[in-house]
Design a protein that fits this description.
By secondary structure, the protein is mostly helical. 54% of the residues lie in helices and 0% in strands.
Length: 127
Amino acid sequence: MDFGLTFEKLLLIGVVAVLIVGPERLPALAEKFAKFVRRAGEYIRDTKGRMRDEMGPEIDDIDWRKLDPRQYDPRRIIREALLEEPTPAAPAAAAAVSTAAATTAAPVLTRPSFDSKTPPPFDNEAT
């Protein structure tokens, strides 16, 4: 995570900081910044250690990239859900559904099936 900062941008920020702060206060501010960076590093190391203590050695086996929420595209998830074939019900469950349907006489709703050649309908006003 470099936040789009290149060496040239960091150099420009440093030059502007020197001009704004001035040479008198620059050593004191650099020392404060170094202390802040050290404390942040210690905080991160302590947090990692605490997580390792609480979760145990399994924390090393976790693939953190799979848990990244940025990889989930709701449009792709819905498209895949609409294109997948419905799974047939188990025989016992199908018998229970058929007897329940016969007693209540409720209409059975089926999900439309789409093949890979024709995409599902798209509604411009729904998005």
